[in-house]
Amino acid sequence: MVNAPLHIITLVKWVPDAQLERRYNAEGRIDRSEGVLSELDEYPLEAALQLREAAQDREVRVTALTMGPAGSSTAVKKALQIGADDAYQLTDEALIGADIWASSVALKAAVEAVAGAGEFESGEPEYLVLTGMASEEGESGAIPAQLAERLGAHVVTYATSLELEPERLVVTRSGGTESQKVAVRMPAVVSVTDQANDPRYPNFKAIMAAKKKPLTRFSLADIGLRAEEVSAKVRVLTTTARPPRTAGEIITDEGDAGLKIVEFLAKERLL
């Protein structure tokens, strides 16, 4: 539909603070007692805000959606401060330890619930889901494609720029050794890379305004899912910390440094 309202749902994640030492609990899972909004999720959020700002005669709403423990509200609150219009938090004990499969099942139901919530002044909206290129701790990058498949939506990955046209979204994406420009109709799921933009930072006025924006919390039952429907297919058996790096060998040049380097490389089977 030409100039139909657009509901942009941006997935954001609460991840362990990279500035702190990563810890694991007894089940081998990452300790998430302290977390922050994933930096990789600031890029799709910025892309959503830029699309909203560029839309002249089109009603666009930007919603932040997160899935995680109670503390994950920090992620969507930060998204509200940055500029999202409203936010939703899916939290449920049954989601602890969710793998990619379980996460995509839960997020599919959550996106559908959020997409159907609220009213738009100019009619029935189309929806667009934006995600980061990967999560900072898992780095699988598989959620966008799995989510799109479950939603029956189009998918574009590794977007470096997005341009909203009346009946489609034009996306420039990184194809490894080349850049591709593609067009996609809604509904769509698009993952955005860290090369797409420079995320903005909230000022004091935005931080205060965010306190008045709606934040809705819901559980699996609220979106029609049972705990057994989101049981993880992958179980962590063991978790072992990476061994510390040892100091490198220092070669003092006494006229034979070149020979010593060759001997070292040969010993390490690098020649």
Strand content: 15-25%
Cα-based radius of gyration, to the nearest Å: 22 Å
**Unreliable stretches, pLDDT < 50, 5 or more residues?**
none
Number of strands: 11
- CATH class identity: Alpha Beta
Query: Averaging pLDDT over every residue, what do you get?
Result: 84
Summarize the main sheet: 9 strands, mixed
Work out the count of structural domains: 1
What is the string of SSEs from the N terminus onward? EEEHEHEHEHEEEEHEH
Adjacency order of strands in the biggest sheet? 9-8-7-10-6-1-4-5-11
- How would you sum up the global shape? globular
SS field, number of helical segments: 6
Domain Electron transfer flavoprotein alpha/beta-subunit N-terminal: 27-227
Family: Belongs to the ETF beta-subunit/FixA family.
Function: The electron transfer flavoprotein serves as a specific electron acceptor for other dehydrogenases. It transfers the electrons to the main respiratory chain via ETF-ubiquinone oxidoreductase (ETF dehydrogenase).
Subunit structure: Heterodimer of an alpha and a beta subunit.
